Amino acid sequence: MDILRIATAGSVDDGKSTLIGRLLYETNSITKDKIEALESASKRKGLNFLDLSLLTDGLIAEREQGITIDVANIYFSTPTRKYIIADTPGHIEYTRNMVTGASNAKVSLILVDARQGIVEQTARHLSIASLLRIPKVIICVNKMDLVQYEESKFNEIQHKLSELVSKTTFKGQTVSYLPISSLFGQNITKKALDMPWFNGNTLLGELETFEFAETLAQAPARFPVQFVVRPMTEAYHDYRGYAGKISSGTFKVGDEIRVLPTGQTSTIATIEKFENSLEQAIAGESIVMTLSNDIDISRGNSIVLASETDLPSLKDFSAHVCWLDHQALSPGKTYLLQHGIHVTKAKITQITERLDVTQQTSTTEVGQLNLNEIGKISLRTAQAISADKYAENPSNGSFILIDEFSNSTVGVGFVD
Amino acid sequence: MSIKMSAIHDKIGQFPRELEDESIYIMREVAAQFERPALLFSGGKDSITLVRLAQKAFFPGKIPFPLVHIDTGHNFPETIEFRDWLAKETGAELIVRYVQDSIDQGKAKEESGKYASRNVLQTVTLLDTIEEFKFDACIGGARRDEEKARAKERIFSVRDDFGQWDAKRQRPELFDMLNGRISVGENVRVFPISNWTELDVWNYIKEEKMEIPSIYFAHQRQVIQRDGMLWADSEHLNKEADEIPFETTVRFRTVGDMTCTAAVSSHAVDIDVIIEEILSAEISERGARIDDKRSEAAMEKRKQQGYF
Ligand SMILES: Nc1nc2c(ncn2[C@@H]2O[C@H](COP(=O)(O)OP(=O)(O)OP(=O)(O)O)[C@@H](O)[C@H]2O)c(=O)[nH]1
Ligand SMILES: [Mg+2]
Questions:
Q1: What are the phi and psi torsion angles at B169 (to 5°)?
Q2: Closest approach of A93 to chain B, Cα-based (Å)
């Protein structure tokens, strides 16, 4: 059974939380006691209908203000697959939480209020979806009930949006448009009776039929060593296993490998998963690898195939970053850079661009990058990192920046 | 109903293996990033699952951190028995600390009234234990599908000196990169099965043929009826005059203290029937926990105080 990870996006009050509540409700994913709790909470708020957004807005502050502040992870499943939905905040102040929620998503649901059409957040979230290279975007034109389910209104919004989309999209991304009403359950899991003019799928239909061909297993083989297993017991006296999660590609027993950054080579002797020995393992699997000879490997090293000529090794490079901290990013500052599990120091040598996500333009000669801004930087690391270009191999092309003093995660980067 | 049942059968027995890979990765990050981690073991199915994942993560080596149990004194005897068996079976170190000691030391005060439980008190003992052993990371079995405040929690959840959770200042967690760096005095709660649902846990237990405490299966027990739910009779339960114990067949869906975990009427004697029951159940798992019902924001408030 596969897992499809989804993230919501769109401006404040566009109905993201309500939409997710509706999806859960219509797929029978909410138990009776939770519905009862919802009924009484809705009543306390003086509403005469079920406020489905209360299902995900779990924090006291969120319910008081009626907005989402932090990402909530919601789960449901159908006979087809398991779904994990990150319900993200729409408020610009919490863009960093939106990026966090979207970082693992294969589908981005971008909501647009039918009365308002495109707003600044629509453009921002479209660019973020492309920056993260999310393969599928579904634009949900919500609150169609408030525009009398008029086809012309939907067409007008779709028309304007497709112009914007043509500027943000990349090859391999599909974008579709759906008219919906989250409040009244139109086109969520059931065809919209009030919009007979719409011939497309329902939202659930789109999700159920989305095939995200796992290209990861075909990508270049990358195995970051997380932990060295050395039992030093009698039975396993000389055992030395390299534990980790394969980030991309495929490894087979007998493959000649190379360790980065040391350059040493060896052959894969075994691939193990607990008590089982495997012939091969692919991206996403947590395994233990043993090699035919003893070489010096430690946590943070990467194992790749020896046959590869174009080795991923970067010390001076440029990247796009999204800034996540209140204290701005300024050139010349040193941070800790974490690529996968490998941590090294990094100096930001220059901020070369700042993206204006609403206009899809950029400015050069940038002094600093503030919270929630996206820009392009040049940086230099103390040790080389074994990263690929994000666009070519996303699972090995991103990193985070950590403030050495506060220990917070302050930025996320995508290798250019 | 018939549509629902067929949908139920479609879902049974499918555990997404991706979840196990992700959790093992998290276990290994804990061992690598922290100096003194511990696995908080309650004896419930979620923490049993954690032990299994830890076992797999470091095999053929041993689990490189101790199992820590905060014993409230209100545990089911079956849980304690199981805990000791599991520690032996896996060869992991077991550390037990008692809420009773915190009460005797005057650090915690026993609650009174018919809803008295030691659920809140265990936070005191937990924080003392963290301090005693200088644990910098505590692994717990919380899942995001359990409760709406939990749904907001990160996998590495940083707590301050007092174990407090600040929902508004959580670290962004991007892709699968985990940042466990902390300052002196801070510690991290780690939730490797954040993305599992109750059903995933049961399917995993089934596929892995794991042992679990006997109280998860249907058995005869003396119970009382309270607030429409069944409560195990014991010396720890404060009963009112009209709450008269009777014997019936029940099982527990979640295993916490005897004073705050309700039983469900059930004849499920094997795991397949348990899974079917869960799929058709009308009440969520946490609905059987009186500690959450105290107020709508009960969980968030307890977490702010340093609760798990
Ligand atoms: N009429 C109508 N109202 C809707 C619809 N969907 C949502 N709403 C209402 O819009 C308001 C905001 O909904 P939420 O779901 O909280 O919006 P959100 O996008 O999650 O907001 P943030 O998370 O704070 O960004 C609520 O009052 C909803 O009841 C819809 O389809 N039609
Ligand atoms: Mg919301």
A1: -120, 40
A2: 12
pLDDT per residue as tens digits for the range B147-202: 888 888 899 999 887 778 887 778 899 999 999 999 988 999 999 999 999 899 99
If one counts every other C-beta atom within 10 angstroms of the C-beta of residue A197, the result is 13
ipTM for the complex shown: 0.94
Q: What is the distance in angstroms between the Cα of A154 and the nearest Cα belonging to chain B? A: 34
Q: Per-residue pLDDT tens for A347-395?
A: 999 999 998 877 778 887 778 999 999 999 999 999 999 999 999 999 9
- Does the domain formed by A217-305 have CATH 3.40.50.720? no
Ligand 1 closest atom vs CA A14: 19
A 10 A CB-CB count for B297 gives 18
The per-residue pLDDT for range A68-81, each reduced to its tens digit, is 888 899 999 888 89
Chain A residues 267-326 with CB within 8 Å of chain B: 272-275, 284-286, 288, 299, 324
A187-211 average pLDDT score: 95
Bond preceding residue B60 cis, omega within 30 of 0: yes
Among all residues of chain B, which has the CA nearest to that of A399? B177
* Distance separating alpha carbons of residues A8 and A347, to the nearest angstrom: 34
Domain B2-203+296-304 has CATH 3.40.718.10: no
Q: Measure Cα distances from A290 to A244, A294, A359 in Å.
A: 12, 9, 52
Domain ranges of chain A: 2-213, 217-305, 314-415
Separation of alpha carbons B44 and B142, rounded Å:
11
Q: How far apart are CA A35 and CA B1, in angstroms?
A: 19
- Identify whether the C-beta of residue A286 lies closer than 8 Å to the C-beta of residue B25: yes
Domain map of chain B by residue range? 2-203+296-304, 213-293
Rounded Cα distance between B25 and A405, Å, is 27
User: Given CB atoms, is B160 within the 8 Å cutoff of chain A?
Assistant: no
Of A58, A73, A229, the CB nearest to B61: A229
Comparing A410 with A217, the larger pLDDT belongs to: A410
Query: Pairing relation of β-strands B137-139 and B37-40?
Result: parallel
Higher pLDDT, B29 or B119: B29
CATH topology of domain A314-415: Elongation Factor Tu (Ef-tu); domain 3 (2.40.30)
Task: Report H helices in A27-66.
Answer: 32-44, 60-65
Which two tokens mark A354? 């700042």
Q: Are the CB atoms for A57 and A17 separated by under 8 Å?
A: yes
CA dihedral (B138, B139, B142, B144) positive or negative: positive
Architecture of domain A2-213: 3-Layer(aba) Sandwich (3.40)
Tally the C-alpha atoms within 13 A of residue B157's C-alpha that lie toward its C-beta: 30
E runs forming strands in chain B? 37-40, 67-71, 94-98, 137-139, 156-159, 187-190, 219-226, 229-232, 246-252, 262-265
3-class secondary-structure state, position A392: coil
Interchain CB contact of A237 with B (< 8 Å): no
Distance set, CA A325 to CA A71, B112, B123 (Å): 17, 46, 31
Read off the pTM.
0.92
Could you tell me how far CA A8 lies from the centroid of its own chain?
11
Nearest beta carbon to residue A100 from set B11, B148, B173: B173
